[in-house]
């Protein structure tokens, strides 16, 4: 018998999932005298809840362990023999998936301490203060982009047909090294770095001709940011910056995720790769980089500058470690 308040007894009204659940419980209790569900038919699990937790713990202890290694460790610990697919199914139940690891520079305790100190000094900087920083860096772009994460759809026996083979060229088929800098309202021209960069070249070709004029346009409160590469910290460069009145920001080593220009290089690379036809040679690649650099919209620079406070907060929360940037 269905109770009068049960939604099944009310025709023409919207039913509630909660009320339907209550009705099922009452009907089950009326028919069987208990509210527990009957044992469902089907193949029982080959692992116990304790073994499932052990599988999760083994995966978390060694994040790089494969399903075959975890299977072998489980068999040694509990004498349970299950397939690798079962191992993966149990890990999926704990919301663990096999993914490619993020690539970041190695951080020593000294690096982490320097990151924390930098973030403590700048975490309360305002948007106006960050807008006075000229972020700079060099980046290398290759003519042929080798994407190791590319996936293709293929049938059995189609592994080596032209449509499913990713062709690679040694050393990317040639590359272009460029230097650039930007602030909230300014950007320098993109400079083609040819040959080895020395301290004297960095002073004459980049600082004197590009960085210093841009800093003068930004005003007396402008701050120059560059990384700790050897040419950037050469004695002639330090002397020139002091003579020119360049206010240089102290920058922690091995901190690309704190520098927003790294995200700008990724955006520039995507813009170039989306062009059809692709660049023919190195000179054509540099011309496309110049065109795309000039065409970058202002909203990208605004977003990157505004993200500096979040970067500092996230770096502090990770104790000077890695961030998602």
Automatic annotation (TrEMBL):
<dbReference type="InterPro" id="IPR002492">
    <property type="entry name" value="Transposase_Tc1-like"/>
</dbReference>
<dbReference type="InterPro" id="IPR052338">
    <property type="entry name" value="Transposase_5"/>
</dbReference>
<dbReference type="GO" id="GO:0003677">
    <property type="term" value="F:DNA binding"/>
</dbReference>
<dbReference type="GO" id="GO:0006313">
    <property type="term" value="P:DNA transposition"/>
</dbReference>
<dbReference type="Pfam" id="PF01498">
    <property type="entry name" value="HTH_Tnp_Tc3_2"/>
</dbReference>
<feature type="domain" description="Tc1-like transposase DDE">
    <location>
        <begin position="132"/>
        <end position="277"/>
    </location>
</feature>
<feature type="domain" description="Transposase Tc1-like">
    <location>
        <begin position="52"/>
        <end position="123"/>
    </location>
</feature>
<dbReference type="InterPro" id="IPR038717">
    <property type="entry name" value="Tc1-like_DDE_dom"/>
</dbReference>
<protein>
    <recommendedName>
        <fullName>Transposase</fullName>
    </recommendedName>
</protein>
<dbReference type="GO" id="GO:0015074">
    <property type="term" value="P:DNA integration"/>
</dbReference>
<dbReference type="Pfam" id="PF13358">
    <property type="entry name" value="DDE_3"/>
</dbReference>
<dbReference type="InterPro" id="IPR036397">
    <property type="entry name" value="RNaseH_sf"/>
</dbReference>
